[in-house]
Design a protein that fits this description.
The chain is α/β, with parallel strands linked by helices. About 40% of the residues lie in helices and about 20% in strands. The chain has a 5-stranded mixed sheet. It has a 5-stranded mixed sheet with strand order 13-12-11-14-15, sandwiched between helices. A hairpin with a 3-residue loop joins strand 4 and strand 5. Helix 7 crosses helix 14. The protein starts with 10 loop residues before the first helix and ends in a 12-residue tail after the last helix.
Length: about 400
Amino acid sequence: MARREAAAAGPGSRALVVDLIRSAGPISRVELVEQTGLTQPTISNIVRRLIADGVVRETGETVATGGKPRALLVINSQALFGVGMHLGPDTITAVATNARGGTVGHELVARPADHDPSVLADTLIGLYRSLTQGLDLDPHTIAGLTVVGPGPVDVARGRLLGPGEHGEQAGFDLGAALSRALAIPALVDNDATAAAIGEFWGRQVSRDRTFGCLYLGAGIGSGVVLDGALHRGASSNSGEIGHNTVVRDGAPCVCGNRGCLERYASPSVLVDRARATPGLAERLEIAAEDGYGHAFDTLARAAVYGDADASALIEESARWLADAAVTLANLWDLDTLVLAGPGFAVAGSIYVREIRERLADRAFARRLHPVAVDLSSNPRDSAAIGGAALILQGSVAPGHGPQVAMRA
């Protein structure tokens, strides 16, 4: 069991109560008192405000106790909606989710080839309006928008600094531009950490779990949720396991390091190796003009169907990521790990099998508890769904999620 923080009445108490209702609901007020350690009057006041705000509702069901029946509480899924957008190398994925993390809308568009940041902002603004208006969402029920991409990200200033981003975008406050244009709170964050909170929120994972997410997209990242909140680090750029050195003085990486995990296990590297293998790209019909995402899907599909050369590449990547999973589990004493990101969409079963076996054999605390390893139910959209979860968590559970406010 993960460490549980001592509860005290205050701003964080609402986040604690919301998180318990989210993960354990339907739940009674008496059970909330027992599980939080807060007093009965404090729980009654918090629940009363949550009901008044529309965040929580009584189910109409009760539990007989021999005395007065206890009304049960759940999160009101229609109270608020969040919008998340994931900036991929070639595409932008947009999703809208309800307050329980269920996806209610989805759009996919091409990422503009023009590197002018104002063009990207205009594309995102149009996509937001298309998605929310197409779903006929009441603007007053939309908590806001989070745009996520590869790190590093300057969360405080709404700037994308990732090695894959162009210099002119790195100095552009995308969050403020979106907030002004759409008149909503708008955040910019890391795709891997967003995926972690999206999986945690949508799966109704208990805050008692030490929850980790390993993300495979254009690069490799991770996120860890402790006591219901993301572990952020000094600048909200924790979890960059893809830029840990795995080969001393190895291949140079765009981050400035050498021998990074990404240089041996990421989709782009595997596609380059497939293209360098005589006859393999032609046999699998991986065209020279295919983007890395499509090409990697083709490679992964061939591996699933038993192609020996494709299998060798994917299985080698899985072994590298299994080592990374052991590192994550040992650092954080994880009891749950979810694999998310488009890189796991086709050959996720190969990665899950390898990582489960490696953790069962080598995790430091394996004799005390197992590490549950699961594949995301929607690996391709997990980062965008996580973006929506971030803005929702910051709105309904302040203290656990990011600060949500309009940007000037």
